[in-house]
Specification:
single chain, 255 residues, alpha+beta, 5-stranded antiparallel β-sheet, 5 helices, 14% strand, rod-shaped, signal, coiled coil
């Protein structure tokens, strides 16, 4: 090989080595840049994933807040309706309280009139348990003058007295007492069939009387009624079974 050829080969070899070295550096740089890009993309994806999770958490929290807000709105509306109802009740109670004095001014005179009427009725009525009934009227008057008794309790007792009077119209009973027989006090057994008949039987069971409410006096009965009166007293005391008996009962007069 000539010198020129050898030099040319040497130059070409050197050039080739130089070319390989030059071409290798950009490739390495490219790989490095690509690795950096992948790493940056990975970090970006991680950030995106983190932001997505945060967004999902915020969405769930937002929905919870919305639900709680709706629930609070419903509850607040409910409470508001209760408050409005309570305010209406308070206003109603206040009006009632304001009218108590006016009510008292009307009901107290009414009760006094009711007591007076009750006493008058008892005195005109058949004298069944007369002393007990008049004593009840006296107790009502005491109650009306007692400042420790409320108006409502006073009214209750007046109504109760009227209810007791009403029961005398259907009650059958026998009890002991005294009558005035022509100026003589006689201890007797009374028998009353409601307000229809009031009879008296002497304790020795030899005499009987019937009350005449028109003349406000006792009238002696004949012997034909004595047995019936004795049986009536025994029946009222549950000493004998109930049975039909003959009693002196005045017929009602036509109006």
């Amino acid at each position: 090989m000539s010198k020129r050829t050898l030099i040319a080969s040497t130059v070409l070899g050197a050039f080739a080595l130089s070319s390989n070295a030059v071409s290798a550096d950009p490739l390495n740089n490219l790989h490095k840049e690509e690795a950096k890009i992948h790493a940056a993309a990975k970090k970006s994806q991680e950030k995106i994933n983190s932001l997505y999770e945060q967004a999902q958490d915020l969405l769930v929290e937002y929905r919870q807040v919305v639900d709680e807000t709706e629930n609070l709105k419903v509850y607040n509306d409910y409470v508001a309706s209760l408050v409005a109802d309570q305010e209406a009740n308070i206003a109603s109670l206040q009006r009632q309280i304001d009218s108590i004095e006016e009510t008292k001014q009307g009901i107290v005179p009414l009760m006094f009139r009711m007591i007076d009427s009750l006493e008058q009725f008892i005195k005109l009525d058949v004298p069944i348990n007369l002393e007990e009934r008049l004593a009840r009227v006296d107790r009502l008057r005491d109650v009306m003058s007692n400042s420790n008794v409320t108006v409502s309790e006073q009214f209750r007792q007046v109504i109760e007295a009227y209810q007791i009077e009403n029961e005398y119209g259907t009650r059958i009973q026998a009890y002991q007492g005294e009558i005035d027989n022509n100026g003589t006090t006689v201890t007797v057994d009374f028998f009353n069939l409601g307000r229809t008949a009031l009879l008296a039987l002497s304790l020795d069971q030899k005499n009987a009387w019937v009350w005449n409410n028109e003349t406000r006096s006792w009238e002696a009965l004949g012997d034909e009624y004595l047995g019936s009166v004795i049986t009536a007293v025994r029946m009222a005391r549950n000493l004998v079974p109930a049975d039909l008996i003959k009693l002196p009962i005045r017929a009602a007069k036509a109006e």
